[in-house]
Structure formats: C-alpha cells, structure tokens
UniProtKB/TrEMBL annotation:
It comes from Haloferax mucosum ATCC BAA-1512. InterPro entries: PhoU (IPR028366), PhoU-like_sf (IPR038078), PhoU_dom (IPR026022), SpoVT-AbrB_dom (IPR007159). It comes from the Archaea. This is Phosphate uptake regulator / ABC transport system regulatory protein. Pfam families: PhoU (PF01895). Gene3D superfamilies: Phosphate transport system protein phou homolog 2, domain 2. GO terms for biological process: intracellular phosphate ion homeostasis; negative regulation of phosphate metabolic process. GO terms for molecular function: DNA binding. Residues 8-54 form the SpoVT-AbrB domain.
Amino acid sequence: METRKVQLSGGTTFTVSLPKQWATEQGISSGSTLYLHPDTDGTLLIEAGTHQKSEHRRVRMDVSGYDSEMLVQAVKSMYLVGVDELVLVERNGYDDDHLETAMDLCADLSGLEIMETTETKLVFQNIIDSSSISIRKSVLRMKLIVLAMHRDAVRAVVNDDTALATRVRTRDGEVDKLFCLVTRQFERAIEDLQTVESLGTTRTELFEYYHTARQFERIADHATKMATLTMELDGSFADETTDEFARVATDARRIVERASEVVLSDVNVTTAFDILSEASDLDAAVNELDKQLYGREDANAAFTVGLLLDSVRRTAAYGRNIAEMGIRQAVKQREHETATRREATRMAER
C-alpha cells in the first residue's frame, strides 16, 4: 500500500498524485481521463478510461461436437458472466435439436435473443440495458413467487394434491430466470463499475440482493422437491404427521418472509436476531419429528417424509442466512454513520 497527501491547488481544487508504476501499467499518461466512482461507504474508486471500452462484450466460441446439454451450459455460462454478444460456431452444422435448444434458451434467459442463424453459426445477443433493470424489484418478485411456491407445495403435500404439485414445479423456471438476471448483473458489476451506477445501486447493496436471491433460488428448489415428493406419497401421510409437517413448514416460510423484510424493506434489525432464535427452535422441532419416523412400519413412507422434513429444515436455514445478511448490513451501516459523525466532529474542532 502506498500513501499520498492531499494538496490544495489554486485554492479551490484538491489534488492527489498517482503512483507512476501503477499509472504506466494502466496506460495512463498526461491528459488521460479517469473515472471517479464515489460510494456511500465513503470510498472512492478510480477507473482508467481504457476500461470503459469493455461495456460491449463479444465472445466467439467453437462448439463443434457439443450436444444440446453442453450447448445450454456454454450459452448460460456466457450469459451469467455478462457477455453481450455470443457467436457459436458449429463446423459440422446445427441440427434441429440444437436450434430448438437455442430457442428454449431465449425463453429461459431474460433479454437473450437470437440475432442471426446460419447452417454453422448462431449469434445470441443481450438486448436489455442495465439502466432498465431494477435488481431490488427483481428480488422482490422472486420473494413473492418463492413464498407462493412454498405455500402451495405444503398444501399439495397435506391434501395429496398432485395437480397443485405440478403447478408448483412449473413455476421453478420463473425463479431461475430471475435469478439468472440478478446473477448476470452482479457478475458484470464486479468488473464494470459503470454497471453499478446504471443499476442505481451500490456494490454493497448489489451483493446483498444477490445473496438474498441465491437463498430464494434454493428455497424454490426445495418447494419443487416437496411438490415432486407429493406424487410419491400416494396418500400414505399419517394425519398426525400431516398436522406437524404443516406447522413446521409454515413456521419455516414465515422465517424466510420476515428475514427478507430486514434486507429488502429495512425492517428493524432486532427482527433478524429474533429470527435466528426461531430458526434454532424450528430445527429442534424438525429433528424431533424426524426421530418419530424411526417407529413407522412403512419404511418407504418414512423415508419420503424424512426428505420433506429436510426440505423444511433447509428452507428455515436459508431464511436464517438472509437474516444474518440483514444483521451484517445493519452493523456496517452503523459503523459508517459512526465514522461520519466522528469525522464531522473532528472537522468542526479544527
């Protein structure tokens, strides 16, 4: 680490010298333009002008011999890391399965469109600009969908409703699509500071949203898992087990809902500490229910119920993760406010 003293130039401007070795490595010389990105935590990030040219990212890949699954992974990976234009070359020519897979990808990934198709080339392009995206609203929408999925999955289990379970499974794609969108913006923001500004957020907030969205995506997976298991129960869920399962599952969902309010709606942080305690109590209750399965005569049913309880336990754990993020967020905010007041007092005393 190097240090520099701030100097007053012309009576109205503060100046700071740059380390020559760093400037040379970044291609900075007299007359170069630097971009300054102030953050709410008091930091100031400096970006060399040459970095601004990376806004449009174009990648060309040779996917000759890729099957449909490999093609999906290639396109999805490039989308998530923030590529704007992806050219896929298949020297042997694309077949109907490849083209159908490509069309499905455009439906599954927000903003992705096929701009050109030839016998040996596919050109994908992202048409959504970061400035038109609200990450917070995307995460809030994930929250609504996930909570509805979880509620319906529990109802499907309790009522042995396979039709409802099927509808739950179809909604998992909506959550995955939103999560991919959030991940893409998060990945781009790591390397491109202008993405953070265009999103109208801070790096800290963006990480909090990404972390919360990640928990929602996992909860959606477990709602889907419960819906799938509904079809395997075949009405063998004992009445007393049904009531207890519904109770702990509802408690787990409330933990997630309240925890997300701490991060997304600025609810008092004391709620987050309450959630940590509630999550521990729920884990103990689920463990007790799990032990009761040992006495079940139907081993297959007991195994399935055990899997359902595991999904409840994990759902509450993901809610706990969100609550812990809310606590860290509050602590950092308090530290920043304290430092700001301390600096203001120091300046007033000078």
